[in-house]
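Technical note accompanying the year-one report. For the benefit of new consortium partners, we illustrate the data format agreed upon in the data management plan: each record pairs a sequence with a structure-token string. No post-processing was applied to the example shown here.
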Amino acid sequence: MFWFVLGCIGALSDKYSFGDQNDTVPVLQDTGPVPTVDCNAELDDSSPEGCLSGPLQCGDVLHATTTGGNQDYSDRFYETAYCFVPYDAYAGPERIYELQVSPGQQAEVVLLSPCEDMALAVARWEDQDSCPPEEDHQILECEGKEASSGDRVKVYSPSGARYLIIVDGPEANFELRMNCP
């Protein structure tokens, strides 16, 4: 029994931290996904043609950088699309990716950005030929998280939809994970 308990604690320590050794009672904290982002890696920083940096699909793990990205969206976009209440100006570059969600499919977008605080926004946008303008757009569905790493946004579409995945913030490397249970 003793070895079984030690084995379980060892397996949990990969995903959880147990607090400071000076604590009298161990604190179990979920540390979330383990970042695999190399902040010093030289990633493709070429500017996208048009607004999209590329397509994403379920199961993808993308290592990218905001360096060289578009500078189309500011805090005004995130506020008018009701993604989140912005606390920053978002004058830096952003990367925009496309995700096509099949009918009845759920998708989870995970942003890991340990190098800098970044925002993640997932906006439903059906126009295949463009990205929404900063203002006067017709975005009816947007969810986002501001200024953190390890954030997740879940989307579900009963009839299928096209979503834009937007990573915005200072010039830095990040990782996007596309989970589709």
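Partners are asked to follow this layout when depositing records. The domain at 54-179 is CATH 2.60.120.680 (Jelly Rolls).
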